[in-house]
């Protein structure tokens, strides 16, 4: 076993080393299904930008993903298919001009859509896209008025009570919905056969009735604004426009997010910008730069994950024994040093008087740091911070920023502090609190504690550590697991929590730690591995995948290695699975291990198949050899 572990560690180290880019980063694809591919086609056709090579390539990938029943799925074990994804694909294929209504692929897709309720049943974001492109009616009234953007931060409900993801998408929607803006072209397809009953193209009204109970806070806020109503209305639109323009990255994208940039382009046209305006042209070019190649197929990434990949891989390589003096580590850390953020972003609104010092997810991102990337980058540069002043300065700034981002409840969020107004979590929007809020989560809290415990040797009696531990213990699920917001899902959260608790010296025989360990043992598969379905995220309870994956197995093993004093039979079986599955290449390899929006889109991090098994094996070797 020892020899095999060493061989596999060396194989993974060699593979990762060879795949490092010239600039020191790792640019593994950030794969999120077909939605972004579809939206890129729809955007190009709407703007009448004829990039036929790109459209051809995206059409090819979309068609390859279609199931035999005509539907598209967002994860492998989704029942028949995903209605919204199928509508998006059908629309994009028709708009591309490469497929017509009578073609078999469209015929099968249309039948699936009609059997599952038609356009009335798709998610709200897709309805917004259809409204923007003239295929769906805007609602007569907007539940969240554009004047909402004028509410001061001191008001009980304001723009910055929303998560960054929600804000970046909502602001352009507020503009376009206010104008009821839409743009059709001569090439726009006819989707009328996807409305099953008269009036389905305006069914927002029934959905939005659920919002009426939330009108009072908005009305109260509007009545408190001083000024002429028409002038306030125009001021709100100007502020919304400025919000977008002031948060563009150097590549022209809005927050370096595909969906936010897509919506911004339409919002600017609603405000009177020409489709050929340099700002819009640059935004489109920025989105085009999100292209990546997956198995010789072109995919539009939602964003890039270079900083995240690089920080995680550099740390895993160092844990596996690659010295910090090695070129691969020097290049990686030099790359990360250049990506530390020095700008005050929206995070500073709820966290004033703190110097910037975090890291973001994308290599494009310059003012949107997050806790996960910050602690991951700090883990990677730790060895350099000891003796090199420039790294020490970056280390100190990063530490200060990470500590300052702790929520008042003791846990840590992803992007912004104390963005957890529970009133908003009840709004009837797909994803609910997951999209609208940025609360403390077990995965962020666990990994932040793990960093402070293992990489800074912070005194575990520090008040902020004790508060983090208390939050974790109070938020354990009844079955012993923890829910992980940014991964799939309960295995991910439990791994983060256990490794975090172990790092800050929570005793391994603590009843709650033992309950978590027993839960992991109970869900181990017969082949020795672990696997979890994306359905866990939708049902908010653990749902087994019925197949093991290398990534889930690595997470479960890493948790058990951290908590157990010896290599138990279950751990040994898990290690054996990782070794036996080292060259596994089936649907489980590409199964999403990350989540973006529950029930909406999931993420296949291509790097995870290598870096997390490497980390688990390295930790196993270090502790039990």
UniProtKB/TrEMBL annotation:
* Keyword Metal-binding tagged: no
Which Pfam family is one of those matched by this entry?
Answer: SQHop_cyclase_C
Squalene cyclase N-terminal domain segment(s): 9-291
The answer to whether keyword RNA-binding applies is no
Kindly tell me the pathway this chain contributes to: Secondary metabolite biosynthesis; hopanoid biosynthesis
Q: Which InterPro entries match?
A: Hopene-cyclase, SQ_cyclase_C, SQ_cyclase_N, Squalene_cyclase, Terpene_synthase_CS, Terpenoid_cyclase/PrenylTrfase
Q: Where are the transmembrane segments?
A: 254-273
Question: Where does the record place the Squalene cyclase C-terminal domain?
Answer: 306-621
Query: Known EC number(s)?
Result: 5.4.99.17
GO molecular function terms attached to this record: squalene-hopene cyclase activity
Enzyme class label? isomerase
| Entry keywords, A to Z | Isomerase, Membrane, Repeat, Transmembrane, Transmembrane helix
| Family stated for the protein in its record | Belongs to the terpene cyclase/mutase family.
Protein name (record): Squalene--hopene cyclase
Q: Which organism is it from?
A: Oceanobacillus aidingensis
Q: Which gene encodes it?
A: shc
């Amino acid at each position: 076993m020892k020899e095999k572990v060493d061989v596999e560690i060396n194989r993974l180290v060699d593979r990762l080393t060879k795949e490092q880019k010239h600039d020191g980063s790792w640019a593994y694809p950030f794969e999120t299904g077909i939605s972004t591919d579809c939206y890129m086609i729809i955007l190009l056709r709407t703007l009448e930008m004829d990039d036929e090579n790109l459209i051809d390539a995206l059409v090819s990938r979309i068609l390859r993903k279609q199931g035999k029943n005509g539907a598209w799925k967002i994860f492998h074990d989704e029942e028949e298919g995903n209605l919204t994804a199928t509508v998006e694909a059908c629309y994009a294929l028709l708009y591309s001009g490469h497929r017509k209504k009578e073609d078999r692929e469209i015929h099968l897709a249309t039948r699936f859509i009609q059997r599952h309720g038609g356009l009335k049943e798709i998610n709200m974001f897709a309805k917004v896209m259809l409204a923007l492109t003239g295929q769906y009616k805007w609602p007569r009234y907007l539940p969240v008025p554009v004047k909402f953007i004028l509410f001061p931060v001191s008001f009980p409900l304001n723009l910055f009570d929303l998560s960054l993801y929600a804000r970046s998408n909502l602001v352009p929607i507020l503009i376009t919905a206010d104008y009821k803006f839409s743009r059709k072209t001569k090439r726009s397809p006819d989707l009328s056969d996807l409305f099953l009953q008269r009036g389905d193209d305006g069914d927002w009204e029934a959905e939005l009735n659920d919002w009426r109970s939330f009108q009072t806070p908005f009305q109260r806020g509007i009545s408190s604004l001083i000024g002429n109503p028409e002038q306030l209305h125009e001021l709100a639109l100007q502020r919304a426009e400025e919000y977008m323009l002031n948060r563009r990255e150097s590549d022209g994208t809005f927050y370096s997010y595909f969906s936010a940039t897509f919506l911004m382009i339409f919002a600017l046209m609603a405000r009177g910008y020409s489709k050929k305006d340099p700002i819009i042209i640059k935004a489109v070019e920025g989105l085009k730069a999100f292209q990546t190649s997956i198995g010789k197929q072109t995919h539009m990434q939602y964003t890039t994950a270079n900083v995240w990949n690089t920080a995680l891989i550099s740390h895993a390589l160092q844990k596996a024994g690659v010295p910090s003096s090695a070129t691969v580590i020097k290049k990686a850390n030099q790359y990360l040093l250049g990506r530390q953020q020095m700008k005050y972003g929206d995070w500073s609104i709820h966290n004033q008087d703190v110097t910037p010092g975090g890291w973001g997810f994308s290599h494009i991102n310059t003012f949107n740091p997050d806790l996960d990337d910050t602690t991951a980058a700090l883990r990677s540069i730790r060895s350099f911070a000891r003796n090199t002043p420039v790294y020490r300065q970056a280390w100190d700034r990063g530490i200060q920023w990470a500590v300052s981002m702790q929520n008042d409840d003791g846990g840590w969020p992803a992007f912004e502090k104390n963005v957890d107004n529970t009133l908003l979590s009840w709004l009837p929007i797909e994803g609910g609190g997951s999209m609208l809020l940025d609360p403390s989560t077990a995965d962020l809290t666990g990994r932040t504690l793990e960093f402070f415990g293992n990489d800074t040797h912070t005194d575990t009696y520090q008040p902020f550590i004790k508060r983090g531990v208390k939050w974790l213990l109070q938020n354990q699920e009844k079955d012993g697991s923890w829910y992980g917001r940014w991964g799939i899902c309960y295995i991910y959260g439990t791994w983060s929590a256990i490794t975090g608790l172990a790092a800050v010296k929570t005793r391994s025989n603590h009843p709650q730690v033992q309950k978590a360990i027993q839960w992991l043992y109970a869900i181990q598969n017969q082949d020795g591995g672990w696997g979890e379905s994306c359905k866990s995220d939708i049902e908010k309870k653990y749902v087994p995948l019925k197949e093991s994956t290398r990534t889930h197995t690595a997470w479960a093993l890493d948790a058990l290695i951290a908590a157990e004093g010896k290599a138990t039979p279950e751990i040994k079986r898990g290690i054996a699975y990782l070794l036996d599955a080292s060259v596994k290449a089936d649907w489980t390899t590409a199964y999403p291990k990350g989540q973006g929006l529950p029930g909406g889109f999931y993420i296949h991090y291509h790097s995870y198949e290598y870096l997390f098994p490497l980390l688990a094996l390295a930790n196993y070797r270090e502790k039990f050899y």
